[in-house]
Specification:
Order of helices and strands: EEEEEHHHEEEHHH
Bound molecules: zinc ion
Distance between the termini: 43 Å
CATH class of the largest domain: Mainly Alpha
Mean pLDDT: 92
CATH topology of the largest domain: de novo design (two linked rop proteins)
Strand order of the largest sheet: 1-2-3-5-4
Number of domains: 2
Radius of gyration: 20 Å
């Protein structure tokens, strides 16, 4: 197959190639994650100069060659121009892009991940939403999009729907007071933290960033979601290490290997 195709998506990363070109990774609605060459994109007068940059969201006209995609034109809808100037928000932003890259697959439907990414970057630019909350919401909701999220609506051991009081990474979900003592790694949670986890997993995307939490609830969310990410990611995410170093967000956890899925 060869010819032109127009896709909607976001530039996740950009690498210089040769003297004037760039190799981009795009997350697109129509074709999933794509590697795209942008010829001449580093020339000052190139029409692709502004578009071939991380965080750019828009429509891209690509030429589909035998083995690779080449960018022909770009219609930028949003640059998130203020994000690269914002600290520490930019570190969160790069981490979100790398996480989307980690999970992205060619020819998969990535519209869910693309929408989540777009809304989360917008949330980062909103000073009234705490960055730490945005991070945990983005991480947990990413696990939802990828189908790897824990059971938070009922006790993972007995199915009890009420009085969920603890979380177990090994059992991958919430526990009731009867089942919690039987799990080695049960972490007690306050009711608002349980509610926050349920809210993030189930609420429609457009309402995702419409709540705030108290510092104690944030600490419990950090613990649960930080642990889930440690458990789930199979390799280190470089931008996550940088983010943790810059913000001191690291959660100290006992490493959990080979979780039991129920
Ligand atoms: Zn139970």
């Amino acid at each position: 197959m060869s010819g032109s195709v127009t896709v909607t998506g976001m530039v996740l990363s950009s690498m210089p190639v040769g003297d004037y070109d760039k190799r981009l990774v795009l997350l697109t609605k129509e074709r999933g994650k794509l590697t795209v060459f942008a010829k001449g994109a580093r020339r000052p007068n190139s029409s692709l100069l502004a578009a071939a940059t991380p965080f750019v969201f828009g429509s891209f006209q690509l030429y589909e060659g035998r083995n690779s995609y080449h960018m022909q034109q770009a219609g930028v809808r949003s640059y998130f121009t203020d994000l690269p100037k914002a600290q520490p928000e930019i570190y969160y932003g790069f981490y979100f892009l790398e996480l989307a890259d980690y999970y992205g697959q060619e020819n998969a439907d990535e519209s869910g991940m693309l929408n989540l990414l777009y809304l989360s970057l917008k949330a980062l630019m909103n000073p009234s939403i705490d960055n730490r909350l945005i991070r945990r919401v983005f991480e947990l909701r990413t696990l939802v999009v990828q189908g790897e999220y824990p059971q938070v609506g009922a006790c993972v051991s007995c199915g009890n729907l009420e009085r969920l009081t603890a979380f177990s990474w090994k059992k991958h979900g919430m526990l009731c007071p009867l089942c919690a003592p039987l799990a080695q790694d049960a972490q007690k949670l306050d009711a608002p933290a349980v509610y926050a986890l349920q809210y993030i997993v189930s609420v429609p995307l457009k309402k995702l960033y419409s709540f705030t939490i108290k510092p104690k609830v944030q600490s419990q969310l950090d613990l649960v979601v930080g642990g889930l990410m440690q458990q789930t990611l199979e390799r280190k995410i470089k931008s996550q290490e940088i983010l943790d170093r810059m913000t001191g967000d690291t959660v100290r956890l006992i490493p959990i290997r080979n979780p039991t899925r129920i």
